[in-house]
Amino acid sequence: MVEVKRVICPHDCPDTCSMIAKVEDGKVISVGGDEEQPFTNGFLCTKTNHYLERLYSPERILHPLRRVGAKGSGEFEQISFDEAIETIAARFKNIVQEFGAEAILPFSYGGNMGKLAFASMDRRFFHYLGASLLDRTICATAATEGYLYTMGAKMGTDPEGLPHSRLIVAWGANLVSSNTHIMPFVNQARKNGARLVVIDPHKNKTAEQADIFLQPLPGTDGALALAVMHVLIKENLYDSDFVEKNTVGFAQLKEHVESFTPEWAAAQTGLTVDEIVDFARLYGTVKPSCIRLNYGLSRHTMVA
Q: pTM for the whole thing?
């Protein structure tokens, strides 16, 4: 008998899809997108469509393995969970006794999400142990701190509101490949007359669909942003009422970006002066607009 179960995709992804899994004799035989969940909209990404290949892969590690050869040799032996726990515990005790608990550095991230597997029990364990504190990732921390410093909170545009936008900017975000379920809303906005601008050093699948593609040199997104602000402020293309009521430090920002001209940014980014100015004016005059950022911008010291 085939059972139908509604489950949630465990991947670290903004789409947070609802999935329909069919189970027969205790084994998952198929997965698909939940048609009743509006954002999932009945389809899954390429990675999750092949989820069963990983779930039942003969290469999947099902038991603890202990390295018996040199690092990189790929030589391991299978041991029991009890032996693995005893080995790790003994190693931790020796490290704590010799060097102190902070010599242990936890490093993990969102391989699988959820309250138990992510940011829960492991935190409690290492806090109790007294291990070094780490934000647990080098993936997103720089971008997160910059966003919080600028916006004050982790908030953004509701993707289901995108059809109301007249201009959508995907900046460092390959939506087609890594935020698949936002694309129907982007496409609906474009049917309604919106334009799609993609800013990325790599001409990815989203860039291939863009109305305007800006391809700055890697690590120069910050220079482009400074020049765009320069144009917006110089030509008074910003919402002065919003700035006055909801921001601090605008006078300092205005002074700071004064020297970052489009000519300066063109030399940094490899874009033309006209490309930079035209984009700034487009963003400053078309309302409502939306910028979809992703972590690509923070992968370089010149931006982060």
A: 0.84
Quick one: pLDDT band at residue 14, thresholds 50, 70, 90?
confident
Q: In this structure, what are the phi and psi dihedrals at residue 23, rounded to the nearest 5 degrees? A: -120, 130
Judged on CB neighbours under 10 Å (0-12, 13-18, 19+), 132 is middle
Torsion of the alpha carbons at 144, 146, 152 and 157, rounded to the nearest 10: -60
Please identify which residue in the block is written with the tokens 């550095």: 105
Name the β-bridge partners of 198.
170, 213
Strands (E), 12-108: 18-24, 27-33, 65-67, 76-78
pLDDT tier at 232, thresholds 50, 70, 90: very high
Angle between helix 262-269 and 273-285 (nearest 10): 120
Q: Are 131 and 101 in contact (CB under 8 A)?
A: yes
51-71 in b/e form (b: 16+ CB < 10 A) is beeeeeeeeeeeebeeeeeee
In angstroms, the CA 232 to CA 228 distance is 6
pLDDT at 299 over 80: no
- Please state the length of the chain: 304
Domains, the chain, in order of start with CATH, read 2-55 (3.30.200.210), 143-298 (3.40.228.10)
Torsion of CA 267, 271, 274, 278, to 10 degrees: -120
Token pair 């992510």 in the structure block, residue: 118
SS3 64: coil
